Amino acid sequence: MDCMYTYHLLNRTYEVQKFCIWFLAGIFQLLTYPIWQTVVQGAATSCYVALHPNLKGVSGKYFMYCNEYATSNLATEPELAKKLWDYSRNLVKSLRHS
């Protein structure tokens, strides 16, 4: 009898958790819907930068919504770039050996 009651409580707890996650996901989607993009819109900038003839040879620039934008000062700081590169390299090395 105790096992059955425990199973029932665990099942109810799981159902409540599932509902809460679904409910919170729904609220999140509702609040962020205005900034969503379709697949085509999301791929547009990548395709534009990769294929547009006027951008041949362009490198190190930041593009968003098919337009070039200025980068922040942090994005052009060589010391920070080196730290990020070293961290990324060490992370990849550690993943390969796992």
Automatic annotation (TrEMBL):
Keywords, comma-separated and alphabetical: Membrane, Oxidoreductase, Transmembrane, Transmembrane helix
Name of this protein: Very-long-chain 3-oxoacyl-CoA reductase
Segments passing through the bilayer: 19-36
This enzyme's EC code(s): 1.1.1.330
Signal sequence region: none
PANTHER family listed in its UniProt record: SHORT-CHAIN DEHYDROGENASE TIC 32, CHLOROPLASTIC-LIKE
MF term (GO), any: very-long-chain 3-oxoacyl-CoA reductase activity
InterPro entries assigned: TIC32
Top enzyme class: oxidoreductase
